[in-house]
From TrEMBL:
Protein name (record): Protease I
Signal sequence region: none
Organism of derivation: Actinoplanes philippinensis
Gene3D superfamilies: 3.40.50.880
GO molecular function terms listed in the Swiss-Prot or TrEMBL record: peptidase activity
InterPro entries linked to this entry: C56_PfpI-like, Class_I_gatase-like, DJ-1/PfpI
Domain of life per record: Bacteria
Length: 181
């Protein structure tokens, strides 16, 4: 486990209903443990419903809506997976703009499992190398990316992982990259 400090860094977690709970809670815990400030950004006010695979899990309070969030206020972005969560996000113009603005600004963007679907919709994967849940391979390749089957892969500012089993490496890489930024 990393001992890097990210004190004073703000990290946006973009998620909505259907987010895979552990893919939200573990990276958030890693950011907060390293001294960073995490904020849940979503499509709506109130709470979002997380899942454990397809079963309902906990609910989480939204700290800001994506339409009111400014990427300039954050140092990094995390895109947790879950099957439904990124599908809802990629259908929302404000969410897609938010992701695109982070990548354009050269800030770290970490996506796990199905999270890269939102990167595809934002049009930011062409010429990049990423990993993801295996079923996204065709979508990523069709969008111009090279897909690899690795625990965690870093391509410049994009950090990607395949699934919840990769969370320790994903979280450590996220914190280390943010500490170095």
């Amino acid at each position: 486990m990393t001992t890097a400090s990210i004190k004073g860094k703000r990290v946006a977690f973009l998620a909505t209903d259907g987010v895979e709970e552990i893919e939200y809670t573990e990276p958030r815990k890693a950011v907060e443990t390293a001294g960073g400030r995490a904020e849940l950004i979503s499509l709506k006010d109130g709470e979002i419903q997380a899942v454990n695979h397809m079963d309902k899990a906990g609910t989480y309070r939204v700290e800001k809506t994506v339409r009111d969030a400014d990427p300039e206020q954050y140092d990094a972005l995390v895109l947790p997976g879950g099957v439904a969560n990124p599908d809802f996000l990629r259908a929302d113009a404000d969410a897609v703009r938010f992701v695109r603005d982070f990548v354009a600004a050269g800030k770290p963007v970490a996506a796990i499992c199905h999270g890269p679907w939102t990167l595809v919709e934002a049009g930011v994967v062409d010429g990049r190398t990423l990993t993801s849940w295996p079923s996204l391979r065709t979508d990523l390749v069709n969008a111009g990316a090279t897909w690899v089957d690795e625990q965690v892969f870093v391509d410049d500012t994009l950090i990607t992982s395949r699934n919840p089993d990769d969370l320790p490496a994903f979280c450590e890489t996220l914190v280390d990259r943010l500490a170095a930024a």
